[in-house]
Write a structure and sequence with these properties.
CATH architecture of the largest domain: Orthogonal Bundle
Structural class: mainly alpha
CATH topology of the largest domain: MetI-like fold
Largest sheet: none
Helix content: over 70%
Order of helices and strands: HHHHHHHHHHHHHHHHHH
Radius of gyration: 24 Å
Number of helices: 18
Strand content: under 5%
Distance between the termini: 19 Å
CATH class of the largest domain: Mainly Alpha
Length: 379
């Protein structure tokens, strides 16, 4: 592919006509005005002490002080596994590329700055850059020895999630989670539950059995017609009424149920679109080869359908992650709930702009990481 010089690109895309040139200049002036005002506020007027003083509270919430080593150990395992996956998925020569080194340096700098802000005496935090780099090199070495290891990464991450979740929750229980820890835990559990639930609903909507088809259609259309906050309140109030009296569900469990029931209906519609994109000739050919209908769906149709709807599925999961902020409305102390508790402190009155800007950055980093992972999965 021929490379285009920056001047030719600018002329073609931004200054091709006189009115495009005027719009470009007006846009640049507006961006300059907004950016200059924001930089002036961030450097002179903003008081970032509210972030530094409450960083630990935002990240781990009210997790017991004597058990904080569990959270940092879990973070170290996730960082090491992330570096390991990065090393396996990267090309053999990518270590020498400037882009990889720059990204690695930025991540290490962020880890070190967070470590000094949260707990300078915690050696696990300070060793996160070393763990990331060690995992990266280990992944690259194992990739040379076991090239098929790439196909096992999803299973490794899934098993690691359940092990680390048990490691965190076993001493305290899920009810005492709060802050970013609660937000990420609820989002990941809901994603893992709503995906197979949505796939089953999509298959039910395509079923030849009228009862299963119409029940699936009725569920999907009813849930899609209700607001998420209504579903959350319904699961908080009505779910315990249909369960045995001796079975008491925590608010976190009912919130996970609400997110799963709501997002599963939208996942079903995304998967249904992928199923309809597969030509019927493939189903007929598979049946002609002697495959039973379940094997046709599992081995032939579903893998192609899911591959076709990866962008829309990840978009739905990103929406689910952002929707977890509604947990604060139903009484759970998630990341947004912690921020509201901080702003209620008289010491931090009027510091909402700094705090909400930091929360927006956290949500953006998490959502953009999911987007990057989805693009890598597509390739």
């Amino acid at each position: 592919m021929n490379k285009v010089s920056p001047w030719i690109w600018l002329k073609k895309n931004l200054f091709s006509t006189w009115y495009n040139a005027v719009l470009t200049l007006i846009s640049l002036l507006f961006i300059y005005w907004i950016g200059l005002a924001f930089i002036e506020w961030a450097l002179t007027l903003a008081q970032w002490r509210v972030i530094e003083a409450n960083l630990k509270l935002l990240f781990v919430g009210y997790y017991p002080q004597e058990l904080l080593w569990l959270t940092w150990t879990t973070l170290g395992a996730i960082v090491g596994l992330g570096g390991f996956s990065w090393g396996i998925l990267s090309s053999y020569s990518s270590l020498l590329k400037r882009k990889s080194l720059v990204i690695l340096g930025i991540i290490c700098a962020v880890f070190i700055s967070v470590a000094f802000s949260v707990d300078r005496s915690n050696y696990i935090l300070l060793s996160l850059p070393v763990i990331l780099v060690a995992g990266y090199f280990l992944g690259k070495q194992l990739k040379r020895l076991f090239p098929e290891l790439k196909s096992w990464l999803a299973l490794i991450w899934l098993l690691s999630f359940f092990v680390l979740l048990w490691f965190l929750l076993e001493p305290i229980g899920i009810d005492r989670l709060s802050g970013l820890l609660l937000t990420i835990s609820v989002a990941l559990i809901s994603i893992l539950l709503c995906f197979p639930f949505g796939v089953l609903l999509a298959l039910g909507r395509q079923s030849d059995l009228p009862a299963i088809r119409w029940l699936s259609v009725a569920y999907i259309e009813i849930i899609r017609g209700l607001p998420l906050i209504g579903i959350l309140f319904m699961t908080q109030v009505m779910l315990p009424l249909v369960l045995p009296s001796n079975l008491q569900l925590s608010q976190v469990i009912t919130a996970i149920a609400g997110f799963t029931l709501f997002t599963g209906a939208y996942v079903a519609e995304n998967v249904r679109g992928g199923l309809q994109s597969i030509p019927r000739g493939q189903t007929e050919a598979a049946k002609a080869l002697g495959l039973s209908p379940p094997f046709v769906i599992v081995l032939i149709i579903l893998p192609q359908a899911l591959r076709a709807v990866i962008p829309s599925l990840v978009g739905q999961f990103i929406s689910l992650f952002k929707d977890t902020s509604l947990m604060a409305i139903v009484g759970l102390v998630d990341l947004l709930g912690i921020s509201q508790s901080i702003l209620a402190n008289p010491k931090y009155l009027g510091r909402s702009a700094e705090l909400y800007l930091f929360l927006g950055l956290i949500y953006w980093v998490c959502c953009y990481s999911m987007s990057i992972a989805s693009r890598r999965l597509e390739k």
